[in-house]
Amino acid sequence: MRRDGFTLIEMIIVVVMIGVIAVIGFPKIRLALDQTNVRSTRVFLSTAVATARAAAVQRGCRTAVHFASGSGTVWVTACSRANPALIDTIGGVANLASRYNVTLAATNDSIQFDPRGLSMANATTTVRITGATSYGTDSVLVNQLGRVVR
Q1: Residue 137: what are its φ and ψ, rounded to 5°?
Q2: Span 8-142: which CATH code?
Q3: How far apart are the C-alpha atoms of 98 and 6, rounded to whole Å?
Q4: What is the mean pLDDT of the chain?
Q5: What CA–CA distances, in Å, run from 85 to 61, 62, 82, 95?
Q6: What angle do CA 81, 84, 89 make, to 5 degrees?
Q7: Beta strands in the chain (DSSP E)
Q8: What are the contacts of 85-90 at 24+ separation with CB within 8 A?
Q9: How confident is the model over 60-116, as pLDDT tens digits?
């Protein structure tokens, strides 16, 4: 006698095994995704600071990286190439809080660079990044010269 298909007991065993694997795996996947989002935010902030420094040297004017800590928004401004009296936003305004599901807390609201590419702040600026879980935290430290020191 030949049967096609599975018995009810076999199906229940497979469903229970899938459930156990899911219960074990989902928290680790969520933690890994959160750590990846925090790392991506750190890379984005480092790139924004490097972009501001490069624009200051290229354009020969003051530039700034702005942080809106409450909304998690970051943008870079510099003088316009066509009219140096005007201000341009370089690369657009990025809402990192909604893009990467993180919160930002910066010690200063902006970092300004002079035409030589040096920071105009007398102190270091720290941007603290916090992910959705308590394990996903990191920070970006910009020293007095304007260099990103992790």
Answers
A1: -130, 150
A2: 3.55.40.10
A3: 46
A4: 89
A5: 10, 11, 9, 27
A6: 65
A7: 63-68, 73-79, 87-95, 103-106, 110-113, 125-130, 137-142
A8: 90/51, 90/52, 90/55, 90/63
A9: 999 999 999 788 999 999 998 888 889 999 988 999 999 999 999 999 899 999 999
**Nearest-CA neighbor of 103 among 126, 135, 73?**
73
Backbone angles phi, psi at 55, to 5 degrees: -65, -35
Cβ-contact 141, 48 below 8 angstroms: no
Report yes or no: 145 and 111 within 8 Å, Cβ to Cβ: no
User: Could you tell me the residue ranges of all domains in the chain?
Assistant: 8-142
| Contact yes or no for 52/63 (Cβ under 8 A) | yes
